[in-house]
Amino acid sequence: MDSPSGVGVIDRSIQILSRLEEGPATLLELVEATGIARPTVHRLAAALIHHRIVGRDESSRYILGKRLNELATAAGTDRITALADPVLNWLRETTGESAQIYRAYGQTRVCVASVERPVGLRDSIPVGSEFSMKAGSAAQVLLAWQDHQALAGGLHEAAFSSATLASVRRRGWAQSVGERELGVASVSAPVRNGQGPVIAAISISGPVERLTRNPGRYHGSTVMTAASRLSKMLEHDG
User: What is the pTM of this model?
Assistant: First the structure.
């Protein structure tokens, strides 16, 4: 963390958020990472949850909250959304399908960037749309690289299995056919913070009639290329 500001409650809150930037954490893990007393961490985390700056995942661990994405989008400073347009446009032009970027927020995933196929039948997903983490190729990607505890919770009542997620990790992309919405297919790949953790999923989506029932066979490598490009841009922009 940067040098303290002198305003203790703010400095301690930033320490908590900095730890959560690395991934979900239990109360004990927050205490160990920050060196802040357990009652203080608990009190600050509760206040941050109240303001939606922090949230909880299915395993009741602390995670970054949706309000942070709303603020970043309003300020126009979210690194992914700031860098995404040329990659999404390339992906749309190459595949002929609508393209999106999703980020995970607890039990939901949020579309933070989107470009639509200009003509014909398309899957229209406005920025800000929220979907379950239980279905869809983007949900598979966002869950596949999480730790064992998150995986176990995320698979409960999901449309995909642990074997599906193992395949996603092995080949580097995910596909779905009719999981999120009947008649819609999609392909997704992980976006990383440079060489670091998976922080988003980049996707294409459209009607099954055009994408086929095995969309990854035709578009998996292209979506992976887009994900790699955006990951490298994030690394160099950091």
Answer: 0.74
